[in-house]
From TrEMBL:
Residues 3-94 form the BLUF domain. This is BLUF domain-containing protein. It comes from Alteromonas gilva. Transmembrane segments: none annotated. SUPFAM superfamilies: Acylphosphatase/BLUF domain-like (SSF54975). It comes from the Bacteria.
């Protein structure tokens, strides 16, 4: 089995509702646990940035489901590569909402303190998520 990491960004679609983020997290955690996919989701009420790790087949199938999810629009793959180890092995889907902690990290890994993953390199997005991983609240580590 080859491990892969996929990082993508998307914009919320008009069909996105106030309950959508919780629905996404519950579904992702259930499905990812079943399919041995791990990762992290960052969200600021406008943009998603997500990292998925697992077998090539499981990650590709998960990404295919996201591409067909009406809550996402303008989906762009930022990075896709084979990896030798997972960075998020303990999480079926960690979650980092925008907070005061993230502004400095946005500036460190992109051109502005605002969160806009469309303006990031895939490697910058990965490094930012790894830095966020250290400050994710324990209730969001699932």
């Amino acid at each position: 089995m080859f491990l892969t990491r996929l990082i993508y960004t998307s914009t919320i679609a008009p069909s996105f509702s106030a309950d959508s983020i919780e629905e996404i997290l519950v579904t992702a955690r259930r499905n990812n646990s079943r399919n041995n996919v791990t990762g992290m989701l960052c969200f600021n009420r406008k943009y998603f940035l997500q990292c998925l790790e697992g077998s090539r087949t499981a990650v590709n199938n998960t990404y295919h489901n996201i591409l067909n999810d009406p809550r996402h629009s303008h989906i762009i793959m930022l990075d896709y590569k084979e990896i030798v180890t997972r960075e998020y092995a303990e999480w079926s889907m960690g979650y980092m909402p925008e907070s005061g902690f993230t502004a400095g990290l946005n500036l460190k890994f992109s051109g502005t303190p605002g969160f806009n993953p469309y303006e990031m390199l895939g490697e910058s997005a990965q490094q930012m998520m790894l830095a966020m991983k250290e400050i994710v609240p324990s209730k969001n580590k699932c």
